[in-house]
Design brief:
GO terms for molecular function: oxidoreductase activity, acting on the CH-NH group of donors, NAD or NADP as acceptor. This is NADH-flavin reductase. InterPro entries: NAD(P)-bd_dom, NAD(P)-bd_dom_sf, Polyketide_Oxido-like. It comes from Tetragenococcus muriaticus 3MR10-3. Pfam families: NAD_binding_10. The chain is an alpha/beta fold. The protein has a single domain, classed as NAD(P)-binding Rossmann-like Domain (Rossmann fold, 3-Layer(aba) Sandwich). Helix content is 28%, strand content 23%. The chain is built from five helices and ten strands. The strands form two sheets. An eight-stranded mixed sheet has the order 3-2-1-4-5-6-10-8, sandwiched between helices. Strands 7-9 form a two-stranded parallel ribbon. Helix 1 crosses helix 5. The radius of gyration is 16 Å and the shape is globular. 43% of the residues are buried. The model has no long low-confidence stretch (mean pLDDT 97).
Amino acid sequence: MKIAVVAASGRAGKLITNEAVKRNHEVTAIVRHKNQTEASYVLQKDLYDLTYQDLKEFDIVVDAFGVWNPSDMDLHDSSLMHLADCLSGTSTKLFVVGGAGSLYIDSEHVKQLKDTPEFPEEAKPVAEGMVKALDHLKERGDAQWVYVSPAASFIADGVKTEDYTITDNEYVENKAGESKISYQDYALAFVDAVEADKYNQVQISIYQNA
């Protein structure tokens, strides 16, 4: 497939890019600055300057953009809506590196992980910003998208186990009572989901089995 990764030099974006390259997909890294990935093709451009013309030839566009400064939380929503606008009415599917705060903890889908007392206070601004963006994405019937949430504990320096499950938008713990996934396993499962070509306009999540 022809895959573009927005913010490809970020931590998650880089791993997803490199994994897709290893699987022989034609990958373009979209970056603002120097490319730090294994992608053979590079488009150096700001996310907000991207247009339909830039993205129309791709089968998949991966949105790995993220911000953590509390004053920038609206960028989660505006950036995602900009990419959805660029892909509106096309067959190109937008795969989003999402957050765990939006996972539901009840079968009625009323309460989300971010609403629990155990959710870290320092992570709530990011979670709220990402939930707002996801809520608006759910309203977009004009674009094809898949929102990929990690488990509750998203471990940057975690090891690659290759032992993970792709599930729906409900919070899940493994047999050890943990909800976790390493960035490396997340990247593997993310590309698995892209290759499966069976998800559309849904939120999915990934957790480590042990």
